[in-house]
């Protein structure tokens, strides 16, 4: 029963990918333009692959730049589709270590839009009556997986392209995920790229052009806890990426964090500097 279900899920994914791809190729795919909560979008994408990551004992981590507005304008389904494609690959091609998703903001003005995107500035996702400036967001999915040979990097974004035929045998897939993601990013006036080292891991990144919702629904905003500002914090975590995420997050709340990687290091740190206000272990 389980086999039938997973085979039919896999088939459905392939059919959907082929349908999406032909819609994109024929110029029939249209993006929606509504306010979306980026944190929710990122967390839903992570939820989607969480069980795979748990089964493979891979840590899933993420970091959202606190400068990202609560709500941006765009197509949440298609943005989630890009994130899921990249996260899916990252988990699929990693056997141990971690997958780290980050989203950062680069504020830009229309003049700074790259040449090939000029003329598209008016096609920003929605009317922008309050004049909130365009935002370029950058997403990155970094893994500690098998990596990709340098001479194969460029071809990956073409349709039906996999590094070699052993990939299909071992991991399945049709080689459409990245081609679809590339088209979707370009429709969002962004670009997609990859950096990779064989045996070390890969970082797939992409940008999109959007803007903050003029009148956001703030009911879901994360309000920085004021009473934490100025406090000295000791972070104890064996995972370096986790320490970096906690450091950035707590710094954005005005805290003074310091991180160590083990209980022994924590005791050493405390013997030299006993005046921490609190600690995360
Ligand atoms: N994170 C990654 N690490 C190593 N190789 C990758 C990674 N992401 C993609 N690749 C390589 O790029 C190829 C193309 O990826 P793409 O997502 O387009 O196809 P796929 O995952 O093989 O199949 P599909 O996404 O259609 O199920 C993969 O087959 C793999 O060879
Ligand atoms: Mg894929």
TrEMBL record:
GO molecular function terms attached to this record: protein histidine kinase activity
Gene3D superfamilies: 1.10.287.130, 3.40.50.2300, Histidine kinase-like ATPase, C-terminal domain
EC numbers, comma separated: 2.7.13.3
Span of domain Response regulatory: 232-281
SUPFAM superfamilies: ATPase domain of HSP90 chaperone/DNA topoisomerase II/histidine kinase (SSF55874), CheY-like (SSF52172)
All residue ranges annotated as the Histidine kinase domain in the record: 1-212
GO aspect biological process, one term: phosphorelay signal transduction system
InterPro entries, per database record: CheY-like_superfamily, HATPase_C_sf, HATPase_dom, His_kinase_dom, Sig_transdc_His_kin-like_C, Sig_transdc_resp-reg_receiver
Taxonomic superkingdom: Bacteria
Catalysed reactions, semicolon-separated: ATP + protein L-histidine = ADP + protein N-phospho-L-histidine
Top enzyme class: transferase
PROSITE patterns hit by this protein: HIS_KIN, RESPONSE_REGULATORY
SMART domains on file: HATPase_c
Classification via Pfam families: HATPase_c
Keywords: Kinase, Phosphoprotein, Transferase, Two-component regulatory system
Nucleotide-binding keyword on record: no
Family listed: In the N-terminal section; belongs to the phytochrome family.
Name assigned to this protein: Circadian input-output histidine kinase CikA
């Amino acid at each position: 029963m389980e086999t039938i279900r997973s085979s039919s899920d896999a088939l459905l994914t392939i059919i959907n990918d082929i349908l999406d791809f032909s819609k994109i190729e024929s110029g029939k795919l249209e993006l929606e333009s509504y306010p979306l909560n980026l944190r929710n979008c990122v967390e839903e994408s992570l939820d989607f692959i969480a069980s795979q990551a748990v089964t493979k004992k891979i840590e899933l981590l993420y970091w959202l730049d606190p400068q990202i507005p609560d709500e941006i304008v765009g197509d949440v389904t298609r943005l989630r589709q890009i994130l899921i494609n990249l996260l899916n690959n990252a988990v699929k091609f990693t056997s141990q270590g971690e997958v780290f998703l980050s989203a950062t903001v680069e504020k830009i003005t229309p003049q700074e839009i790259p040449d090939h995107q000029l003329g598209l500035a008016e096609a920003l996702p929605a009317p922008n009556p309050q004049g909130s400036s365009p935002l370029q967001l950058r997403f990155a999915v970094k893994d500690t997986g098998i990596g990709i040979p340098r001479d194969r990097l460029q071809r990956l974004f073409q349709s039906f392209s996999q590094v070699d035929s052993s990939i299909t045998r071992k991991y399945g897939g049709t080689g459409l995920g990245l081609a679809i993601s590339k088209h979707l990013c370009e429709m969002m006036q962004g670009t997609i790229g990859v950096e990779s080292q064989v045996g070390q891991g890969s970082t797939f990144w992409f940008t999109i052009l959007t803007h903050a919702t003029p009148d956001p629904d703030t009911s879901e905003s994360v309000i920085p806890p004021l009473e934490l500002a100025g406090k000295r914090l000791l972070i104890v975590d064996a995972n370096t990426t986790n320490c970096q995420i906690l450091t950035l997050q707590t710094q954005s709340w005005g805290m003074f964090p310091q991180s160590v990687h083990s209980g022994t290091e924590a005791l050493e740190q405390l013997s030299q500097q006993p005046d921490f206000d609190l600690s995360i272990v």
